[in-house]
Amino acid sequence: xxxxxxxxxxxxxxxxxxxxxxxxxxxxxxxxxxxxxxxxxxxxxxxxxxxxxxxxxxxxxxxxxxxxxxxxxxxxxxxxxxxxxxxxxxxxxxxxxxxxxxxxxxxxxxxxxxxxxxxxxxxxxxxxxxxxxxxxxxxxxxxxxxxxxxxxxxxxxxxxxxxxxxxxxxxxxxxxxxxxxxxxxxxxxxxxxxxxxxxxxxxxxxxxxxxxxxxxxxxxxxxxxxxxxxxxxxxxxxxxxxxxxxxxxxxxxxxxxxxxxxxxxxxxxxxxxxxxxxxxxxxxxxxxxxxxxxxxxxxxxxxxxxxxxxxxxxxxxxxxxxxxxxxxxxxxxxxxxxxxxxxxxxxxxxxxxxxxxxxxxxxxxxxxxxx
Length: 371
Known about the structure:
This protein is of the alpha/beta class and 371 residues long. Helices cover 33% and strands 25% of the residues. It contains twelve helices and 16 strands. The longest helix is centred in the middle third of the chain and has 19 residues, at 154-172. The radius of gyration is 21 Å and the shape is globular.
């Protein structure tokens, strides 16, 4: 079997110079919404790193359309958006390949079955030890809609099934990035219960720094970014995204797939702001991160002499290492972080130089021995 020996983040970072992005370690949340549907800004180096990830996606029929959206993007631009995908892979596929493995699972009208099947896939079938990113989505039929869909109130779906499942998996599989999702919408009516669930998801992820793919927000804004409501005044799907009011058409599925490319790029640490450029004082400080032999070498350039502090923070903002403190001359410097004392997960390099503070996010994933 093939063994994958590399630090996922280093594929993107090693050998490239970045301007430091303004980011607060205490607000590390990633949110993908209708403002994040343009993947063309992602550099090729980052896209190549995404294609080296192992991603698990569980869904019903709406997810089938989303996967077709990945195919649509690849047809339009294979050099950028061609990625390996497979339907119902066994665990061995991720030993030999990288890309998106997806499953149709659970039963409509029974949201608890979606949670239990995802939990079973991660735990009992071993996918939790083989993937880098994992997520699942509900169907529109899982939520009460007038008299003909769903039986469980949305707040019960959240508090009894979805949140406990995700929290337990995050605690037990810290090396996996679990992505929380909002519920898909209808274009006409029946979105009130979905709105309850989506509000709970947005508030929890915002307050706890979770990664959120806000499908409902993407579906409920037209191509000009204007919000759309259903006939009852609730957040609703824009009709031009759907073939029947729930399932995505060509425009809708490509829009969601584009947003997922952005999600994967943000998880790997890409920042759109770095591409767009910062002001001169910020861009004069440059950073390069190199991984080798279990340690991270942080090489940086100072435009002028001054007091410098360099620390590593975890995703909760706790300082886990102090790498430099004191007056330094202008020019190039380097420090080394021996991460043997730290676990896997999201970290931040924090640099203070004179009156300015910058942070750069790192996603540290283990070198997995695939059996």
